[in-house]
Design a protein that fits this description.
- The chain is mostly helical and 307 residues long.
- It has three domains: 45 residues, Roll (SH3 type barrels), CATH 2.30.30; 128 residues; 109 residues, no CATH class.
- It has 13 helices and four strands.
- Strand 1 and strand 2 form a beta hairpin.
- Helix 1 runs antiparallel to helix 3, helix 9 crosses helix 12 and helix 12 packs antiparallel against helix 13.
Length: 307
């Protein structure tokens, strides 16, 4: 009996078993006519991919679990040096990820789903070893800390490194996470957008983010009034330290809202609970009330996202 060669069709990716005595074969699924060498080459690629994947599997979760405190470092003062350090520590792992994906006989898109699953399997295994995982409040904190690393460090770095698998790996990682933790939403971040936010004063304003979400222009009456209040009364009445602290923390707060939360729900809360009363106080000349309301908003959001 002729030896059977097992492999996947290079054309459609379906599994095949072909008698080794043949020089050519037709795929029973897609009908592609191919030399037997194409099947053996694909089998070789599969073996190489499997080898690379097995070697990579224990290292993938390290890109996340080694950084439980990084949610504290998304400030204007700390973000750039923290991201640079994160990149230096994980660049090699992610380049191995890309090489592994490239070795998949069905291409990087097929590999991305499997590699994303490996990462998430590793994260779940790690969660089970943590004592905090046993209590709901602590579990929610752990999941938030993980989402920050995924959204603000890992997926931006994958894109920044221009990996061939970047787009599909980022989307697969996000999709599979939401299948496992549907109430713990996050979105893949972009390093260029994040750095622009930390560098530009305009983006740092929580009010700016809320107004943009509502479709208001950057020069709307509300934003103009708040900026005049900041540069006028607040600055003249000893608010310099408050302003400096705000510019340090606000970019991280906005990043967490946009990438690690439900932006629509959160911005609606900010609007109704703080900004509308604050703006009303400003229009009525109650400047101390406006300041106190804004400070209360920032303190509450700091506690929520920097706990």
């Amino acid at each position: 009996m002729a030896e059977l060669i097992k492999g996947v069709c290079p054309s459609c990716g379906k599994p095949l078993e072909i008698p080794g005595e043949l020089e050519e074969f037709s795929c029973m699924y897609c009908g592609a006519r191919l030399p037997i060498s194409a099947l053996t080459a694909a089998q070789g690629d599969r073996e190489e991919y499997t080898r690379l994947r097995e070697a990579l599997r224990p290292d993938l979760p390290k890109t996340v679990v080694r950084y439980p405190d990084h949610y504290r470092k998304i400030t204007k003062k700390d973000f750039f040096t923290t991201f640079e350090s994160y990149e230096n520590e994980n660049r090699e792992i992610l380049r191995r990820l890309d090489a592994c994906a490239a070795a998949h006989p069905e291409g990087v898109d097929a590999a991305s789903g499997e590699l994303a699953a490996d990462l998430l399997d590793g994260l779940e295994a790690h969660f089970q070893t943590e004592r905090r995982w046993q209590r709901k409040a602590s579990r929610d904190n752990m999941l938030f800390e993980t989402r920050v690393v995924l959204a603000i460090f890992l997926t931006p770095l994958v894109k920044k490194l221009n990996l061939a698998c970047a787009d599909t790996f980022r989307s697969e990682l996000n999709r599979q996470w939401l299948e496992r933790f549907p109430k713990q939403e996050w979105f893949p971040g972009d390093y260029e957008v994040l750095t622009a936010g930390f560098k530009r004063r305009k983006w740092c304003f929580i009010t700016t983010a809320v107004c943009a979400h509502e479709g208001k222009p950057d020069d709307c009456a509300e934003l103009t009034a708040f900026r005049a209040f900041r540069d006028g009364w607040l600055t003249e009445h000893g608010g310099g330290d408050l302003i400096a602290e705000y510019y340090d923390k606000a970019p991280g707060i906005v990043a967490c809202i946009e990438l690690c939360d439900d932006p629509r729900r959160r911005y609606e809360e900010i609007r109704s609970r703080w900004l509308s009363p604050c703006y009303r106080a400003l229009q009525e000349g109650r400047y101390e009330d406006c300041r106190d309301s804004y400070v209360a908003m920032v303190r509450t959001l700091e506690k929520r996202y920097y706990h």
